[in-house]
Amino acid sequence: LRHYMELAVPDKSGDADAMLTEVEFVLLLSTICAMSKEEMADFVFDAFDTHQTGFLDMDEFNEFAKYTSSSSDSSKYVQVAITQFKQSHSDMKQIDRKLFDVLNHSYPHLLWPVFRMQKNARQNSMPDGIEEWERITYRLQHR
User: Fold this and answer.
1) Are 93 and 57 in contact (CB under 8 A)?
2) Are 7 and 20 in contact (CB under 8 A)?
3) Of 88, 8, 99, 32, which is closest to residue 61 (Cα–Cα)?
4) E strand or H helix at 5, and its extent?
5) CA-CA distance, 98 to 43, in Å (whole number)?
6) For the segment 84-130, what is each residue's pLDDT rounded down to a tens digit?
7) What is the pTM of this model?
């Protein structure tokens, strides 16, 4: 997710192509606000799967772990969860989407920073905030 959000921040070179346009930012914001929990988990997986292999190798997983533990108010719980997971899967070289889902269901704190960001975006982007986004998400999922 950080990978995508960094696109919204200009780089120090001043390169205008390194920034999102207003339209791109609104599209990204609306996409994130309309996502279900499962879609958000997929979005995060894809953001950290920088090699686009459909797996998180250990470097990608460590980057995910570093991000979630540094950006979470519950970072102690996240660090414990990551440590327990690594100990029980010490022979693992990569994590597929299915195992990532199991990890996130077993340790709900891992994606808490992402869901908090989504909640804040929903609250602050429309007059009726979260309730309006829930109606939109429901309509999109039940087409």
Assistant:
1) yes
2) yes
3) 99
4) helix 2-5
5) 14
6) 777 777 777 888 999 899 888 888 878 888 888 899 889 988 888 88
7) 0.73
